[in-house]
Protein 1
Amino acid sequence: MTTSSGSDASPEIGWGVGSVAARLGIAASTLRTWERRYDVGPSRRTAGGHRRYTETDIDRVVLTQRLIARGAPARDAARVAHALDGEGLAAALGTEQDRRGSEDLGVGDTAPAVLEAARGGDSRRIARLVGDAMDTHGATSAWTEIVAPTLVEIGREWSAGRLPIEVEHLASEVIVGELRAYTRRIGELDHGEPSVVLAGAEDDQHSLPLFAMEAALAEAGVGSLVLGARLPGQSLASVTHRSRPQVVFLWASIVRPDDDPLIDVLAGLTRSTCLILGGPGWPPRVEERLGPRGVIRSTDLRSTVQRIRGIVAH
Ligand code: B12
């Protein structure tokens, strides 16, 4: 796969690894790993030695990615993708598309479609729409432009008494599943010593943004450890003390009181760990209470991921 023997596209018009990473929403480091370990990679190089993916190479990567997402071990997925030529790959991907029943919707139409599927209790359609949106636009854009607005609307309709709570539960479960499947598809879930820890504030059940962060960080080539919702303050303190992560990100959806004892715990966290607070639940005076310890307040997924990427790169 690393020789110049392919018949489609000249080396000059092939795709560089960065472009393929952006197009498919797969970290460039993952693409390089697949090339090194499984020989799924660019079949061309420019005269200067830069990798160039042809459209057939990209189809091979996409098929590998989809088979892994369906539970195949990476080595087996790569073997299947390798055995197919351009036509075979196109046929396999076409079948995949049919199997998923893609609706080929634009960003603007996807959020209403997810809402409609949630209302109708159609978990397969929610999964397909959200999964496809992430494959097409990447997790950061799919969350920001499709998933988050849908969730905000679901919350609004629930609080107005127009939507039963089970709809919110169903949509949440399916979306968490799709976010984690996407993270697995593009990288490894981090089970090692974490440099980025993601958790939900004590007593707060909302965990979805943590999984969105995990996926978006993976997309940026950063592994993270999700400790889930409702992490007791003392556990957060011991994990931070023991593992000394570079970043702790803590989410709160439910409004917390000004005299929240959790804030005292946060004030005592080692200063070598950068503390980032996200979500509308943090009281406005939290910065004041954390004083010299320091804290970053984050307002959206994209900028938070960029910030964390900058921190772990140093
Ligand atoms: C899904 C959901 C649930 C699920 C959670 C499942 C899960 N695994 O996470 C379940 C059903 C368990 C649940 C339970 C409850 N929920 Co609820 N839930 C939601 C819902 C619909 C989405 C939550 C979410 O993921 N929000 C994240 C994003 C999508 O929303 P957002 O924070 O408003 O987004 C803004 C910013 O934060 C930013 N943003 C968006 N994404 C991201 C990502 C990052 C990383 C960053 C930094 C910023 C950012 O942009 C947005 C625009 O300003 C929200 C609606 C809502 N608006 O949040 C209600 C909501 C948070 N829930 C609410 C309530 C009341 C509850 C319950 C108390 C209900 C009950 N009586 O039992 C319990 C909570 C109990 C507890 N102690 O925690 C209220 C909170 C009201 C308040 N002000 O405190 C909300 C706002 C619904 C509403 N409109 O009234 N919930």
Protein 2
Amino acid sequence: MNRRIDERILDSLSCPCCSEQMRLSEDERSLVCRAPRRHCFDFASAGYVNLALTHSGGGDSKDAVRSRTEFLESGAYERVSDAVNSVLSDYISEGGLVIDAGCGEGYYSCRAARAGFRVAGFDLSKDAVAQAAKRAKREGLANAFFGVGSVFSLPVADSSSDAVVNIFAPCAEAEYCRVLKNGGILAVAYAGREHLMGLKRKIYDSVYTNESRSDMPEGMELLDERRVLYDIELSSEAQIKNLFAMTPYYWRTSAEDKNKLEGLNSLRTEVDIIIAVYRKNG
Ligand SMILES: C[S@@+](CC[C@H](N)C(=O)[O-])C[C@H]1O[C@@H](n2cnc3c(N)ncnc32)[C@H](O)[C@@H]1O
């Protein structure tokens, strides 16, 4: 199965073993580096490339990926994705290269690619990246590429990217700063004070608002901060459980509290997302 990959995305990829630039093999089945040893990484049948050096797996499980896919496809977070795309349109040119660090199953990456940006998404979860690559293929997005890789060690060349987006995923600021061009932007989306309060009230006896973040990535300045605040109405137990499974609370909640969602068929809850935009200083 031969692969095509956008030239500008290809030029930005670096070998995870030796940091040399990558190129497409002659049969277009693999990415190979330009070093004498030619480290070689094959495209999986789903269309992604595993550029992680360890084989220990990690990242979201198949079930978590399925929950997120089902939830995001309902359109409930479309306004979050629109807000991320507006940030990109406001700060970088169309066709600019965006790294989606911790891209999950590619919902945000593919919507950014549809808006005209070149997007390379990386995630530690093979299941998530496989979904992302299938989504890009289904949507005919030749300007999106997906690879398995850690956000702490991106297979991306220094100073090659116009933007890094980091949506509810681990934030590796120093690594994002390395791959950004001078003047490039980092957009970090995280939960605001009221995020999912309605859901939390169903589960916990006492609920707390989220704390605001004040950390500042080194070598960057805060340019902009946008709040996306609206209510969503969920009308099935399956979607309520999908949303819950996407949250960090899922892993720290007792079976007894989780059971409170059994038989719950409707839920109104707040979506409150902050998108902080930083610029890399030259
Ligand atoms: C909450 S999900 C968010 C996914 C996606 N950005 C979204 O909002 O739909 C967090 C993602 O980070 C990934 N992840 C966790 N640790 C990672 C790491 N060190 N490097 C890359 N991805 C990681 C998980 O596999 C998961 O897909």
